[in-house]
Specification:
- The chain has a domain at about 15-110 and about 165-200: Aminopeptidase (3-Layer(aba) Sandwich).
- The protein is about 25% helix and about 30% strand.
- It has five helices and nine strands, in the order βααβββαβαββαββ.
- The protein has a nine-stranded mixed sheet, sandwiched between helices.
- Strand 3 and strand 4 form a beta hairpin.
- The protein binds coenzyme A.
Length: about 200
């Protein structure tokens, strides 16, 4: 009988992806990516307006060499969050970029005491549904003809009990299994200042 193959070990070396708060300086890259991936892309103005509401919105980018390769937005309601957008550059897919963005978003949501997060996803978008399922999101209903470009239905997904140990353990497990450490850039200055944040750290 042959021995089972050992599980792959997560690398301890960063792979160049940094998750950072989205700032106006990122919008050119964000909109280029949005235009390439969304049939009804959000405009730069719409993203800019979202960034003007920092108490109810939280937007992140994933950067490689300061170039935007992904982004994710969350809208805060009193007890729950709503993922507004998530996208990753085609060239960077299947490398856990979306996973890193979601990890940071959901950690931030938990720190703000949100207990549930919801989102809509195209009914045919199996890759995204699979990603969300791994985080504990489950189907919660259908919005008929939600997408205006092709009148496709949306699957509503919910993640509950974000404040419970089981869910927080799941986030820790997903982080521990990342192919590279989760590097996060922290703001060390006034968010209205559009300069580069100056510190990066590994999120543990
Ligand atoms: C969905 C999307 C954000 C995923 O980004 P990504 O960085 O490639 O995702 P990750 O590498 O973090 O994937 C994590 C897991 O999700 C699942 N997944 C992601 N892409 C998948 C695919 N094409 N097929 C099947 N499962 C997939 C897998 O379980 C994957 O884990 P694995 O690679 O270890 O098998 C990306 O494909 C995308 O930008 N799509 C277009 C925009 C979109 O659909 N946004 C979601 C709107 S609700």
């Amino acid at each position: 009988m042959s021995a089972a193959a050992p599980a792959p070990m997560p690398s301890s070396r960063p792979d160049g992806i940094v998750v950072a708060p989205m700032r106006p300086r990122h919008l050119q890259g964000v909109v280029a990516l949005e235009t390439a991936t969304n049939p009804r892309p959000w405009s730069e103005r719409l993203f800019r307006d979202e960034l003007r509401m920092p108490t109810s919105r939280h937007y992140l980018v994933a950067l490689r060499d300061h170039v935007v390769v992904g982004y994710c937005g969350l809208m805060y309601h009193p007890d729950e969050g709503h993922i507004t957008t998530l996208s990753v550059d085609v060239a960077e897919r299947r490398a856990a970029v979306a996973t890193r963005l979601l990890l940071v978003q959901l950690r931030a949501a938990a720190e703000r005491s949100l207990t549930a997060v919801t989102l809509e996803v195209r009914i045919t978008n199996r890759p995204a549904q699979e990603l969300y399922r791994r985080f504990g999101f489950a189907p919660g209903g259908i919005r008929r003809a939600y997408y205006r470009d092709n009148r496709e239905d949306a699957l509503i997904m919910w993640l509950h009990d974000l404040d419970q140990p089981a869910q927080l353990d799941r986030l820790d497990r997903i982080r521990a299994e990342l192919p590279a450490p989760l590097v996060v850039a922290h703001e060390v200055r006034d968010p209205d200042d559009d300069g580069e944040p100056t510190t990066e750290g590994v999120l543990r």
